[in-house]
Amino acid sequence: MDIQEAFELFRETIDENNSTWIQDRHKINRFVELVGRNTDAQEAISESNIVGFFGTLDKNLNGYFYTLKKFYAFVQEKVLALPMSERKVFPLEIPKDIYLDENGKKPKANYLTKGFDFYRLFHHDIYNELHNETASLTIKACIAVGLGAGYNTGDISGMSIGDLQVDDDTVRVKNLYETQSVPWILLKGELAQFIKDYYDLRMKHVTSFEDTSQPFFQKYWNGRELKIDPYIAGVNTKGITNKPASIIPLMTYVLRCISIKMDIEPILYPTHLHINTILHQLLQTDGKALESIIRTFGWERAFVRESFYQYTQYREQKESIGFHPFDSGSPNDITADHDTENEESNDFFSKSSSVDNSGADEDILIIEFINLKRRKRDTKRVRALKVLYRNCCQICGEALVDINGIGYSEVNHIQPLSEQGVDKEVNMIVLCPNHHTLMDMGIISIDPRDRKTILHVDENNALHKSKLSLLKHSLSDKCVQYHHDEIFKSMKEQIKKFVWRDNYKSREL
Length: 509
Fold this sequence. Notes:
Elements: H1 3-12, H2 19-35, H3 41-44, H4 47-54, H5 61-79, H6 125-129, H7 133-149, H8 153-157, E1 164-166, E2 171-174, E3 184-187, H9 189-203, H10 230-233, H11 247-261, H12 273-284, H13 290-297, H14 302-314, H15 340-345, E4 365-367, H16 379-388, E5 400-401, E6 407-408, E7 410-413, E8 428-431, H17 433-441, E9 444-446, E10 454-456, H18 477-508
Parallel strand pairs: 3-4
Antiparallel strand pairs: 1-2, 2-3, 5-6, 7-8, 9-10
Helix pairs in contact: 1-2, 1-5, 2-5, 7-9, 7-11, 7-12, 12-14
């Protein structure tokens, strides 16, 4: 059997609706293509081929390592049907320096990139793969506390029931950093909901409602019931999977799985959550959160200073406004051009004095990761629409087909879900990646007068006045009008300004 046939057999064992399978498929396909699709399976997985393949990679070694290791084991066991005594160990060990520091000990701090989608840490297939709802609720709550309140692993393990207050829409978590002005950290939105979901479970097991010193995080699942990936968790000398025995090890395993399957490098560990609490508050507020951060966590803590330094590395500031001691203008004039109303809507922080513990200044740091507000899409409708149009773009009619004959297309929400668009077929069209991008940018739109004619910001473009393919599929007047008025027209105005500016500059020259 050749390696291509082995790949096809492997695919039959995988749930292709699993979001990580798409990435795994491309990794294995790249290997199969490199060694030759008609190469004998046993020859294809030789040590020289494996080592040679990894020599072609310059990034994402973690993801390729675990995916290829799994495929390697499958070929030996299912394709070559080798007895256990004849099966070989995967010929590579993952380089330690990928996820450890220069001493080979402590994991490198993983400062997640600007714009990172934190939704990925909570809504990932790995939770379903655990096959244990209780364990999933527990780990999501741990991650939420780590991110929201800046708790490290020791803080999470030592947290008591009295360290939080749960209301209808919010959760207050005790500020462990001993600042007098901010005794509680207020969490809202989905972060709060993840904690509340576990809180409801925890309250069913309390021995006394008056004793608030009881540990908050407790293990309420049978470790034997967990489905753990042996290629990530590892196996002991007897060939038995190393299943996490307590909460923090399971939290570590989950974050490791997500990192590997979502190509997050270096590997994200539980000890990295609190540093990203600081970094991403600064990034999402353009630095304006610094005062609140210092008042909440204190400046003397190394992780606060290091996270702030990391924030400065993201800034692209070529010059700075110097201090003008003899300027009689108001200091506020420096930022007078900013649209403060818009900035406040994206700010994590709000001041409150709703806690009646004392007469002290009780400003509460409110944290709500805006990336978690993304609505989960109706994948059944998306798949049905792709089938209806056979993965063909409704604008250009082209169908992308990969080397295995699998069609690829994307479904565009005409009025974005983030802007209150409905998640229904009337707000969806099937597009190729190029035209999907043009729709999102507002370079093209659909004429609201007939909901079929394509409009382009450049009226001389070949796409302008072309027709959208529609098969038993009507579009919403409201959604089409929204895209045309709010996204397309906005782009046209921006382009006009750029053209006017360029023409003006050319006249000056």
